[in-house]
Design a protein that fits this description.
The complex is a heterodimer of chains A (325) and B (323). With 325 residues, chain A is α/β, with parallel strands linked by helices. Chain A is 40% helix and 17% strand. Chain B has one domain: TIM Barrel. Helices cover 40% and strands 18% of the residues of chain B. In chain B, α9 links the parallel β7 and β8. Chain B is globular. The N and C termini of chain B lie close together (7 Å). The chains are: A alpha/beta (325), B alpha/beta (323). At the A-B interface, α1, β2, β3 and α11 of A face β1, β2 and β4 of B.
């Protein structure tokens, strides 16, 4: 048996009138016809729907879908002292854009950023909710640094600030925390810096399991060091990062893994039996019982109906493995 | 010698009556003919506005397009259109899904080119969404290879470019906003755009935006087009130094107004930007335009930005006695 989880984001609108409530709410606020509180309510309704869809699909460990996030970078970064946000920049090789954080001064955590949403999500989900944070290396790599001048100093201060946030989440009761470091697929040489940053986060997590997730590519060249990173579980994108499959098969992992086997960037539907067969080929290299299957990255790159379908495929794949494993 | 000719990248905002009509048409409450009438009305209005402010190279304003990739995909067999996917903030778009071998049904944008060109004596640009962007912005359930899908689009879009030229287009622009998505695929982009532009007599332009230009800089001179159209005001003014060291052997259309800001850049600021550009580029090879399509602005904002841009270019021309 293998469990299922998701990586983070979930489509916040769909194609029915009802599924576009958040889009309308934002438009009303933009026009000055509604206030921020009404937007918050609209976000929470969509968060509930995202949780319901994950619960209905039978996903074992869910997220709040990052419904309230403007994007993966500015949502967290703008709440830290020393950071402002700037114009739009392309987010890795996706056709999505993030408001670029601009580091103007020393980075400092000020107050909890994700805790309220995590509590709300937990109260509205049948399955446990994983708290997901963008990692310090990725935040530092994608920001515009006008203060530190050295990526290392910025990364480590971001890590300290993220550690504070993780501490707040753990105090609130978070039972799973994930740090996303997609930048590792682009800057593998920065692994030691990512590890140093992760140490600062780990110091604040107590006994809560911590996942390190990399996506938008492979980490085959640094696989051995990535699995030894200071995290309890390691997550891999095995679609765009298909090269990492071979590393896992050859070198295995003593730690449980999150195997990102369902393509979260293409609508093409996988056959659960085919994916299950591939995953089962790893059963001598990885302890599948303590591992998870997941999409390759956040599901927000897909239309809502296709994201739902991918959740179904994910659950069906895990079920097949349960029978065959 | 012409100098500092003004133009636009492609899209303009749709007036409220057209937005309402599109919503109605999507619900089946307005016929395709009814919608087309209003698209023609607003296209005519935009042509008249461009004539009014004296833009040198007008565009049709893309009033008939929802999204630049889905519009082309809707007219290509072998595709379906997906549900909404978020781009940023509250902006969503539908993506093409390649479900079968791509085949051209007939000319895609030629009718609109003819419609616009019939309303002005100035040369209207023919506008093609480039093959790399079509591929990158589509889900692929058929080819299973980015290269194969990209070159399949290129083959069809070459036919479209030839059809535009046959319809009288003196300028054909290939839009490749996805150009800077994956640096390792730049050779594929060069090959695919070359497939589209091969054998054309029309002036060819490649437009791109939102990229890390420093990373792609070495490819600028390799792009198989006569002119590069770059977003410069939002992020690229820093690039001028590099152009000084490594000259561009092509014409450049230089974006001088930010299309993602509500702020209307004053004429004086745009003049400064043009003057900066003139420290690097020859006036005859320097075209002035907005960073990108203006469709995300309101009609009033877009018109104000264009009017200031044209006035600024005119003022610089006069101050420097350029004809």
């Amino acid at each position: 048996m293998v469990r299922t989880t998701v990586v983070g984001s979930y489509p916040r609108v769909g194609d029915t009138h009802e599924e576009q409530s958040l889009r309308r709410a934002i438009a009303r606020v933009d026009k000055g016809d509604a206030d921020a509180a009404s937007l918050r309510d609209a976000e929470r309704e969509v968060m509930k729907a995202a949780l319901r869809e994950q619960n209905d699909a039978g996903i074992d460990l869910v997220t709040d879908g990052q419904i309230g996030w403007y994007d993966s970078q500015s949502h967290i970064a703008r709440s830290f002292g020393g950071i402002e946000t700037n114009g739009l920049v392309r987010y890795f090789d996706t056709n999505t854009y993030y408001r670029q954080p601009v580091v103007q001064g020393a980075v400092a955590w000020k107050a909890p950023i994700l805790v309220d949403d995590w509590k709300f999500a937990t109260a509205n989900s049948k399955a446990p909710v994983k708290a997901v944070l963008t990692g310090p290396l990725t935040l530092a790599s994608l920001a515009l640094d006008k203060h530190y001048g050295k990526k290392k100093a910025l990364t480590l201060d971001l890590a300290t600030a993220l550690g504070e946030e993780v501490g707040a989440l753990v105090r609130a009761g978070a039972s799973h925390v994930q740090i996303d470091e997609p930048a590792l697929t682009r800057y593998p040489k920065d692994l030691s810096l990512a590890v140093e940053g992760l140490e600062r986060v780990r110091a604040r997590k107590g006994n809560t399991p911590l996942t390190l997730f990399t996506y938008f590519g492979d980490v085959a060249r640094i696989y051995e060091d990535v699995v030894h990173a200071p995290a309890d579980l390691i997550g891999f994108d095995l679609v765009q990062g298909a090269a990492t499959w071979t590393s896992i098969a050859k070198q295995g992992s003593k730690k449980p893994l999150v195997l990102g086997v369902i393509d979260a960037r293409n609508t093409k539907q996988e056959a659960p039996a085919d994916v299950a067969k591939k995953v089962l080929s790893l059963k001598d290299s990885v302890d599948l019982k303590s591992s998870y299957l997941s999409p390759s990255n956040g599901l927000e790159f897909l239309p809502r109906d296709r994201a739902r379908e991918k959740l179904r495929i994910l659950a069906a794949t895990a079920k097949k493995i349960g029978v065959g494993g | 010698m012409s100098a500092l000719l003004t133009t636009s990248v492609g899209s303009f905002p749709k007036p409220d009556y057209l937005m309402r009509a599109r919503t109605k048409a999507a619900k089946g409450e307005l016929t395709a003919e009814g919608l087309r009438d209003l698209e023609e009305k607003s296209t005519g209005e935009w042509i008249r506005y461009q004539e009014h402010i004296g833009i040198d190279i007008p565009v049709d304003g893309e009033q008939y397009r929802g999204d630049m990739a889905t519009y082309f995909a809707e007219n290509i067999e072998g595709t379906e259109i997906s549900g909404l996917v978020r781009s940023y903030g509250n902006r969503y778009y539908k993506k093409p899904i390649i479900v079968d071998e791509l085949r051209l049904r007939g000319p895609i944008s030629v009718d609109w080119f003819k419609f616009a060109q019939a309303r002005t004596k100035k040369p209207v640009k023919g506008m093609i969404t480039g093959p790399y962007t079509m591929m990158d912005w589509s889900f692929d359930e058929f080819y299973g290879s980015r290269e194969e899908a990209c070159l399949a689009f290129a083959k069809l879009l070459h036919q479209e470019a030839l059809a535009l030229e046959a319809a009288g287009a003196k300028i054909v622009q290939v839009d490749e906003p996805a150009l800077s998505t994956r640096f390792d695929e730049l050779p594929l982009l060069v090959q695919a755009v070359g497939e589209v532009t091969k054998g054309l007599e029309a002036k060819t332009i490649l437009h791109t935006c939102y990229g890390n230009y420093n990373e792609i800089f070495e490819y600028f001179n390799k792009l198989p087009v006569d002119q590069l159209d770059l977003e410069m005001s939002n992020s690229g003014l820093d690039l001028l130094e590099r152009f000084k060291r490594e000259p561009l052997r092509k014409e450049i259309a230089f974006g001088v107004v930010d299309v993602h800001s509500h702020v209307i850049e004053p004429e004086s600021l745009i003049r400064e930007r043009i003057e900066k550009a003139l420290t690097i580029f020859e006036p005859s090879k320097l075209y002035i335009d907005p960073d990108c399509g203006l469709k995300t602005r309101t009609v009033e904002e877009a018109q104000a930005k264009l009017a200031n841009m044209v006035a600024a270019a005119r003022a610089v021309r006069e101050a420097r006695h350029l004809t």
